[in-house]
């Protein structure tokens, strides 16, 4: 035991002979609390705060129920929200909205009416201007066609070219034009007239008739009295430089107008024959063989004589089937052998 005590005495610290100065103590920092200490401290504070807040709330509730009346909301003096007035209610009423919509609709309708009226005026003015332009151009067509033909033929204008152009232009006869006719029909009629005045002599001989106007009138009568008229050019013979014989076939259909204008004298024969002939001829299509003679003047480069011979006998015999009937019709026919109608 004594030995043990002696050992402890050896390890016992010696007492400090000198005291520590203030400088050493000032440099020592306090020890920071640990995370566990912070958790315990914060939890205690929160629990104490919660319990005190609950006690205060219960006390205020009990005190308010016994002593104080219920608070009332008063509008702020300087608040910008005010109660709705009568004028604002009228402005926001459905009736006011309906009136406003009706007024807007009426204004829109009036604006549309004005726009449509302006559009119609512009359209009418444009149609008027186009009609004037079309009329002016239609008046220039004959002159342009004549210039075109002169440029196409020029010094090369020959009898063969005139014959070919004649059958080409008058293949379907003469088509009449008026104010309501199409531009193509008007141009076609004017082209025929221009060709006749350019290729035919002014006093061209047509059997017993003379002149370009007489030739055009014969074509008009033929196109009026018959329907489905078509002229087919056939073989062409040239016996001399100034003469050409052209074979052709003239196809026509007999109508009531044909019987009234070309066979009007059938009324003079007996009624039985007349009714029989009318019934057999009406609606029949005749293919009439023709021969057309063109005489050419080399100095003037124009046709001076145009003769046409039409064979009615053979087609009528095919339709009527009786020479006696054909003889009666040929006697009353108002067409000469030269194809002249109405003499």
TrEMBL record:
Residues 94-103 have a biased composition (Basic residues). Residues 54-127 are annotated as: Disordered. Residues 104-118 have a biased composition (Basic and acidic residues). This is BZIP domain-containing protein.
């Amino acid at each position: 035991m004594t030995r043990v005590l002696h050992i402890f005495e050896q390890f016992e610290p010696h007492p400090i002979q000198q005291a520590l100065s203030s400088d050493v103590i000032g440099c020592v920092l306090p020890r920071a609390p640990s995370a566990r200490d912070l958790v315990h401290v914060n939890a205690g504070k929160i629990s104490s705060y919660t319990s005190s807040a609950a006690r205060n709330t219960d006390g205020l509730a009990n005190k308010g129920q016994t002593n104080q009346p219920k608070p009332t909301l008063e509008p702020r003096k300087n608040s910008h929200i005010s109660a709705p007035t009568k004028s604002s209610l009228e402005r926001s009423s459905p009736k006011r909205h309906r009136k406003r919509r009706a007024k807007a609709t009426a204004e829109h309708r009036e604006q549309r009416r004005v726009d449509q009226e302006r559009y119609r005026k512009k359209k009418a003015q444009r149609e008027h201007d186009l009609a004037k332009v079309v009329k002016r151009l239609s008046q220039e067509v004959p002159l342009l066609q004549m210039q075109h033909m002169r440029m196409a033929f020029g010094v090369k204008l020959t009898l063969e070219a005139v014959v070919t152009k004649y059958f080409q232009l008058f293949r379907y006869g003469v088509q009449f034009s008026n104010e309501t006719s199409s531009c193509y029909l008007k141009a076609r009629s004017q082209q025929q007239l221009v060709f006749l005045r350019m290729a035919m002599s002014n006093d061209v001989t047509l059997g017993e008739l003379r002149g370009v106007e007489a030739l055009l009138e014969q074509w008009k009568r033929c196109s009026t009295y018959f329907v489905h008229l078509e002229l087919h050019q056939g073989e062409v013979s040239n016996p001399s430089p100034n003469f050409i014989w052209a074979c052709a076939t003239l196809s026509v259909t007999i109508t009531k107008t044909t019987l009234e204008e070309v066979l009007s004298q059938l009324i003079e024969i007996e009624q039985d024959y007349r009714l029989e002939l009318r019934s057999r001829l009406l609606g029949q299509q005749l293919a009439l063989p023709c021969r057309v003679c063109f005489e050419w003047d080399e100095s003037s480069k124009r046709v001076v004589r145009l003769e046409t011979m039409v064979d009615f006998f053979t087609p009528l015999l095919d339709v009527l089937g009786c020479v006696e009937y054909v003889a009666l019709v040929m006697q009353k026919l108002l067409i000469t052998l030269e194809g002249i109608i109405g003499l």
